[in-house]
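Protein Record: Sequence and Backbone Structure Tokens
======================================================

Structure line: whole-number tokens from a learned vocabulary of local backbone shapes, matched to residues.

Purpose: to set a sequence beside its fold so the mapping can be learned.

___
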Amino acid sequence: MTRRYVIFFRAVVIALVLATAPLMATNVILNDYAVSHTMEEMEAIGQRYVKRAEEVINETVVTLQQLDRDNAKTCSMEDRTVFMDAVSQKGMISAVGLVDAFGKRMCVVPDLDTAETNILPAARPDGPLVGIGMLDKEYRGAKSAIVSWDLGNTNRLYAIISPAAIAVDPGPEYIRSHRRAELTLGKNLKWFSVGGFTSGDANSEILATNVKSTRYPMEAKVAVARSSANQLVAPLKLIALLASAAMTVLFVAIGIWVSWRPENEANDEFNKAVRNGEFVPFYQPVMDIENGTLRGCEVLMRWQRPTGEIISPGQFMAYAEANGHIFEMTRQLMLKTAEEMGELYSQNPDLKLSINLFAGHFHDRQVVADLKKAYEKSDISFQQVVVEVTERYPLEDMDLARKIISELQALGIRVALDDVGTGHGGMAYLQKLGVDIIKIDKMFIDPLGSDENSTTIVDSMVELADNLGMGIIAEGVEEEDQIDRLLELGVTAAQGYYFAKPMNAEDYIAFAKKTEENAAADVAQADEFAYEEDMDFESEEVAA
């Protein structure tokens, strides 16, 4: 009997054994599903609590910043009127006021009926610019939060966030009736709590999850009795008996399919594609949005099948990284870019070429050798090469990664941190890595102009880049108004479908030449306009 038939026989036997106890298998699957789905719902509830709290705090901080910019910093009648306007415009803010260096209330609008005069701790020389605390006022399990803004003159503006702004109760009904949720600031400073457990729930296993804010020292905790999760699948368990026959057929069909599918078929096909050099570079332009000139491109990988079919990286990149193929694929990509772009880049020394690396490239120094082999003797100089590493996935050995980055920078290669704002990094992460460029992720560019929070985040990134001496590039630009907003914020480099989709080498070279011609024509037109203005001025001077 051949090996394939042995596999087939075993698969069918296993399928039949599984089919003899479908109800038991179904119960296990449904129970696991109930728990996993409930955990997902709990995670979503915690995320909604945190997101809502972040939005409320962000909006309040922006309001206080605006009052500071508008120079509304006193208890004068004029400033109190400005305070009242802020309260009227922002539904989540119930009051705005001013405290002195001792945290004593100087004034508040509207004038609250409260005996508390010292509502904030005394100011410290090393105190934070933004402070967040809680008052005793409570509504539906939520307390009034107080956000302060240091004016730099020992006084602080503050705003009281209404409890109603955070007293939400998201989530499906089967969870709400058997759960406990809390939102805390700092070290267990409770902002909001809702729900509890009945005496019957006390004997049930408790499912719990914590969701932490990436912006503030804030955490949402959600706990649910497991017995409530079982309510989700109770109707399905009644249907399991009727489904057992269909499951039998399904198991046998799966067994037959598995047994006749060639082993390692997918990996063999992928190995063959790597050997045949089917993974090719596509180039997405990076533009100077101030003058419309080309700054360079980001190199993106595509799988070009022998049939001419182009496969996007989303369908193979995770597999390539997990199975180690990505290293050879990246080496081939570098060599192909050196061959395809050598002439263009030798004629345009200011153009940059960005190569994407993943976290595994920083486990050893091999990537340095790969870059040297590809570009050291090519027409593309090291000064024209940029390597990008994503912020989405952490670098396991930061010290080694920093040494590799320093070695690349010593060659003249610049290093960019991609997807900034979507991962685990922060200022300390950026400083430790010592990157040269940060790239703002598309998720912050899409709502730009319509979402004040996104604008504030991008503004903060630009300020961070300026403070650390880094370049900054916006990704995923698709609308003209996004460009206008980016220019207002101080961003001058961008890429996205507004300019061009990723393209093959021939099209990118044509795009570069056309862009250069357009830029030259614009300069010539500007010079001609300036010359005509000079002539007009001379004519007026002669006439005079």
User: Anything to note?
Assistant: The chain is about 45% helix and 20% strand. The mean pLDDT is 83. The CA atoms of residues 103 and 121 lie 5 Å apart. The first helix runs from residue 3 to 20.
